[in-house]
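User: I'm designing a mutation panel for HPr kinase/phosphorylase and want to avoid disrupting the core. Could you give me a predicted structure to guide residue selection? Please restate the sequence first so the numbering is unambiguous.

Assistant: Good idea. Sequence first, for numbering, then the predicted structure tokens:
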Amino acid sequence: MADSVTVRQLVKATKLEVYSGEEYLDSRQVVLSDISRPGLELTGYFNYYPHERIQLFGRTEISFARNMSSEERLLILKRMATEDTPAFLVSRGLQPPAEMITAATAAHIPVLGSRLPTTRLSSLITEYLDGQLAERRSMHGVLVDIYGLGVLITGDSGVGKSETALELVQRGHRLIADDRVDVYQQDEQTIVGAAPPILSHLLEIRGLGIIDVMNLFGAGAVREDTTISLIVHLENWTPDKTFDRLGSGEQTQLIFDVPVPKITIPVKVGRNLAIIIEVAAMNFRAKSMGYDATKTFEKNLNHLIEHNEASDQSSSEEK
């Protein structure tokens, strides 16, 4: 988890324009993902002013400010420009008032701008900051994008996770992380996984060593991060272990506060794990769209039982 993000990092990631304060981009830190729209503050109400947030001015705020006198604008904006205010941000390509530049420059605060509508800009910045400032955990496993689904492959060391990921890459899927996956909670329902910078695009194959997937297979074989939609746990097969054969048992694994669907696949000589995991991802997507082969089988089985019972009853009546 990062404690803060510099304003320069924010500008680069979200493609913001810098109206003034270029020299302050590295020294100003963003510590909260929440954004403030200072409507009440422009009226002079500062009792609960969230000064540690980015101050976002949309069309409403800029229009209100233009109806104030120059002295009023300068007085209010000076009060808003505190020592821990990260930046002033203006949306829709609107020009910031001259008094904003003056007050911000005096307090060493950057003034930024964007042509995006205010709501979209707010969502874009909040999503970026949520990802950067969120608590992170490391999980042992391999994360692969299969048909657009993030599949986290887990299991004991040596069970064949990396080799399976290599075959999946050869089949046209994309590698996100091998061996160690950094995960964080993006919102109440979403877990995102990424590779640590030192392991990005790399895959370790026992007996072969470290390979660079991007260099060998091209840019289309890798991805920086993805939402984790499914966990596939590989477990060595033993005769005394019972595995789900019909797919009716539903498992989940809690990552932070989010339950992620999980399936366990037995590992045995002769099983093609890459194809099985690929089909597991396809089947998971089908279930998400409302089709469940297990329920179809159970329905057909019930119909067959009812049909046989009716036939037996008819035979008894004839006798």
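For picking mutation sites, this is relevant: The chain has a mean pLDDT of 90. The radius of gyration is 28 Å.
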